[in-house]
Amino acid sequence: MSETESTERPERHAPHGPLARSPWALPSAIAREFDPGRAKGRSRRTVRDWIADFTCFFAAVLIGMIGADAVAANPRISQDLAEFDQILGALACAVVWLRRRWPVGLAIAMVPVGMASDTAGGAAAIAVFTLAVHRPFRYVAWIGGASIAVVPLAYLIRPDADMPYGVAVAFGVLLTVTVIGWGMFVRSRRELLLSLRERAIRAENEAALRAQQAQRLAREAIAREMHDVLAHRLTLLSVHAGALEFRPDAPRAEIVRAAGVIRESAHEALQDLRQVIGVLRDGDTDAPGRPQPTLAALDALVAESRAAGMKVVLDSRVPDPAAVPAALGRTAYRIAQEALTNARKHAPGAEVTVTVSGTPGGGLTIAVRNPAPPGDVPNVPGSGQGLIGLAERAQLAGGRLTHGPGPGGGFHLEAWLPWAS
Fold first, then answer.
1. 162, 183, 216: which is the final residue of a domain?
2. What CA–CA distance (Å, rounded) separates 130 from 176?
3. Domain range holding 344?
4. What is the DSSP string of 179-212?
């Protein structure tokens, strides 16, 4: 008997059939051991299994030889009974090889065999040990209890030559209880190892899922940031390129100015793209490179939009924009930038009003409004994606964003962001 028993998973499923309604029913467990379908599902013995089986067999033979010598030297046992004892013990040692296939049936058969033969004592102990390792406690309780109950009867039929009856019974009961306890310990240890293995596998799977989620969030962050950064620049390119297309006879000075804006916007777009990808790749928003825009850069954003031909009114009620936290100011800047970009695309020619207000502890509010455009409203493909990104950005910052049509066909957008005191 050794802890090198096979690491096959201990049985945890309840028996099936009418007798399986009671968790302490044994006949269904025995019937299941003789199920042909179950026999086909067993795996082949490994090298470790063979070593464990040989160890158990030799242990049963060694204990059986000691028992056979004790029976032969016991004057209280006749010669015929001693020979029968040894034959029965040899057969019991042989059937030890069936302990993996029929642990319950073998343990039950060993109860009367162990009572009738001292030579079969080792095989009986191996059978009880195997039962305790491979089957739940309800089987061990029934069969182990029966094995303990027949110990007094066994020593009454075949008294020990050296020990008194009471001592021999106590020794036999203690030995059986020790074997059962050892087997249950091995089973508990095996279940613990299996549980730890399952937890490790589950932890690895959860770590892989977290890594995949982190990658997905990173991709979403890159897409959101690229949309917010590039949409403004590309809109400027579109406006000035459209002006050159529809007014090829414009004065040379206007053509030069438009071309300069296009070149500068393209250069800024490339710089912004490199910065966004670099920062998100490093995972550090404070990485060196072009400075991230904050609320203090809102004046430059409005001036840039005015230079592109927009009518923009900025109403900043924040006493010191530079005092606004960098992360909060960057979020407010991106919201205003996307709102101006949308107004330029969907309401060309309309006057846009940008209002910024807030105090530490009271939050920061950004409101962008515009009336209906003087001409036809252009149909821009993919409309609405930028607003979805702004709502997500505001939510991630702990704030909220609302938008919708305004009176007279206009549009308004308002965002509130928390500003810690």
1. 162
2. 13
3. 295-421
4. HHHHHHHHHHHHHHHHHHHHHHHHHHHHHHHHHH
Q: Can you give the CATH number for the domain in which 419 is found?
A: 3.30.565.10
Domain end point (choices 162, 197, 217):
162
DSSP structure string for 328-383: HHHHHHHHHHHHHHHHHHHSTT-EEEEEEEEETTTEEEEEEEE---SSPPP--TTT
The answer to the question of residue 227 being in a domain is no
Which residue type sits at 84?
Answer: F
DSSP assignment of 309-336, as one string?
T-EEEEEE--S-GGGS-HHHHHHHHHHH
Amino acid at 412: H
In a domain, 272, yes or no: no
Mean pLDDT in residue range 123-140: 84
pLDDT of residue 366: 94
Residue 283 lies in a domain: no
Structural domain includes residue 224 = no
Q: How many domains does the chain have?
A: 2
Task: Name residues whose C-beta falls within 8 Å of residue 104's C-beta, 6 or more positions apart in sequence.
Answer: 26, 29, 30, 33, 131, 135, 139, 143
Q: What does residue 99 show for φ and ψ, rounded to 5 degrees?
A: -65, -30
Terminal Cα distance for the chain, rounded: 71
Residues 19-66 have pLDDT tens digits of: 444 544 454 555 555 555 554 555 677 788 788 778 888 888 888 788
Nearest to 230 by CA among 261, 260, 275: 275
Q: Rounded to two decimals, what is the model's pTM?
A: 0.44
What is the model's pLDDT at position 370? Answer: 92
- The label of the residue with tokens 């890159």 reads 222
Q: How much is the pLDDT for 122?
A: 80
> Quick one: the chain helix, strand, coil %, rounded to 5?
65, 10, 25
Q: What does the alpha-carbon distance between residue 354 and residue 315 come to, in Å, rounded to a whole number? A: 6
- The predicted-structure confidence for 365-377, as pLDDT tens digits, reads as follows 999 999 888 876 6
Residue 46 half-sphere exposure toward CB, CA atoms < 13 A = 6
C-alpha dihedral, 309 to 313 to 318 to 321, nearest 10°: 10
pLDDT of 15 over the 50 cut? no
Q: Look at residue 155 in the predicted model and tell me its pLDDT.
A: 75
